[in-house]
Amino acid sequence: MEEDTPQDISARMKSIQIIGKEKDEAKILTAFQKKKGKEIGSDARDIQFYVNNQKALGLVLKQKKNRKSIRIIDKEKDEAKILTEFQKKKGKEKGRDARDIQFYVNNQKALGLVLNRKKILGYAMYPALAIAIQFAIGQKYAFPDGRPACTTPDDNVEVCGLRDLLQEGVSTLRVLVAFILGGFVVRVVSVWQTRRTAYLSLCGGAREMIIRVAGMLPSTSDPESINNRETMIRWIILGFELSVLKARDSIDSHEGRMYLKYLGLLKGNEWEKMVDGDRHTTVWSWMMAKTTKLNKDGVLTDIYAQSLCDSIADIRGRANDLMSRLNRDQPVPYSSTVGTLINLQLIITSVWKGVVWSVWSFNKEGNSWGRPIQIIDLVIFFINVIALGILYDLSQILYNPFGPRVIDLPHKAVGGGIRKFGKELTSCDFPSTVTGDAQETLSISKRELEYLDELVEGEDEEIKSSLHFDQIPFSNGENYVSSLYPSFLGRKNLVPSILK
After folding, report:
1. Is the backbone peptide bond immediately before 148 cis, with ω within 30 degrees of 0?
2. Is the pLDDT of residue 452 over 90?
3. C-alpha 47: how far from its chain's center?
4. 374 vs 191, 284, 355, 379, CA distance in Å?
5. Do the beta carbons of residue 117 and residue 134 sit within 8 Å?
6. Does residue 370 have a pLDDT over 70?
7. Three-state helix/strand/coil letters over 337-370
8. 3-state secondary structure string, the chain?
């Protein structure tokens, strides 16, 4: 049997590639023929045009997929660096608690908001000013009395007097800035907490409204009842999301509309019928009108209708303006005054440091940077600049807690939980203990009984005989543990405590 030559092998491989290519094109041609409803013999130009379009589309999609994968890889690389640093710092390998890792990553991101490269370069302006003054004044012309300078009250009076005068001014401003900046930071953090509390109150109001609607509207499965429940609960969630969009200054934006459509909260021409700037309030008015109609139709009693209307009015007040700039923003003159005082403090301190360093430089004949005291003083001064700058910048960092940053409210998770809660209650899938369809009894498996026997083994017989499952509270035991309970109810076991 003759062996294949390299030319034969190459020709065979080429034919296999051609056959594979023809198979792929045959699939495209078949799909095209089915789509157009044509049989074999269709116009070859149309078929070739379709094949070329499919190839071009596949190339574009492949490029998009590659770009997306590159972005994902870059993101994973950045997070991998943070995680690697965290693992090295803690000396632990893979398998550590994911919550600890995420907490570390979030801390790193939050630190980047407070102190980043751009801000550090801005803060470096003041030490640079001090160094420039040092080199400008630390020359012979500024010290006509020669070395050593500023050792007696009479030598080099101009520079030494300027140094003492600036030091007095720095001391005076330091006390004033510390007092005013302290109150300013307290006010900033207080407003930040108030806005987060307002969001928490809105979340509670939305859940309360969902519970009321699901409990008061008829739980029957006819189309009209289902539509009433779905519409009312959808409007509650829609008003909730619109309130957050208003806090993000996106309530009237196209992006906000697409976001609500993506969540499935908009239907028909509801967006067009909303009042610009007060879209969330418009939704609450729809709910009030719907409640009134259901009351007139006999679906809701007067008491239920009044209760729902009160809840609607309450949640409207909570969702009116989460940012509430009218009464929560810092007064502009106050913020400007604090910022001006800080800048004046830093400028005067920079000039004072420059004069002090110029004296050191002159006395050491320009070699003061070789002394540790010069470097340490520069580092301390730079830290002081950064501290004052960060404290003032908190007014900008903590201004709006409704953004996408890691320090902002986790609206994606919280809103998702409320939407899921509303969706589940829309179906009115209540247990039989609510509907009264069956009498349920508590069943305990043999394994559970054996587990309880092990728990109470060796304990007092009176305690053992007092075990009743209807007396077990919903708790992890931490709030009820005391010397009155058996040892197995301690904090380490985290077993629900048992009330006598």
Report:
1. yes
2. no
3. 51
4. 41, 66, 13, 9
5. no
6. yes
7. HHHHHHHHHHHHHHHHHHHHHHHHHHHCCCCHHH
8. CCCCCHHHHHHHHHHHHHHHHHHHHHHHHHHHHHHHCCCCCCCHHHHHHHHHHHHHHHHHHHHHHHHHHHHHHHHHHHHHHHHHHHHHHHCCCCCCCHHHHHHHHHHHHHHHHHCCHHHHHHHCHHHHHHHHHHHHHCCHHHCCCCCCCCCCCCCCHHHHHHHHHHHHHHHHHHHHHHHHHHHHHHHHHHHHHHHHHHHHHHHHHHHHHHHHHHHHCCCCCCHHHHHHHHHHHHHHHHHHHHHHHHHCCCCCCHHHHHHHHHCCCCCCCHHHHCCCCCHHHHHHHHHHHHHHHHHHCCCCCHHHHHHHHHHHHHHHHHCCCCCCHHHHCCCHHHHHHHHHHHHHHHHHHHHHHHHHHHHHHHHCCCCHHHCHHHHHHHHHHHHHHHHHHHHHHHHHHCCCCCCCCCCCCCHHHHHHHHHHHHHHHHCCCCCHHHHCCCCCCCCCCHHHHHHHHHHHCCCCHHHHHCCCHHHCCCCCCCCCCCCCCCHHHCCCCCCCCCCC
Q: What is the pLDDT of residues 223-270, one digit of tens each?
A: 888 899 999 999 999 999 999 999 999 999 999 999 999 999 999 899
The b-or-e profile of 165-196 (16+ CB within 10 A means b, else e) is ebeebbeebeeebeeebeebbebbeebbeebb
Residue at 4: amino acid letter: D
Q: How long a stretch of residues is the chain?
A: 500
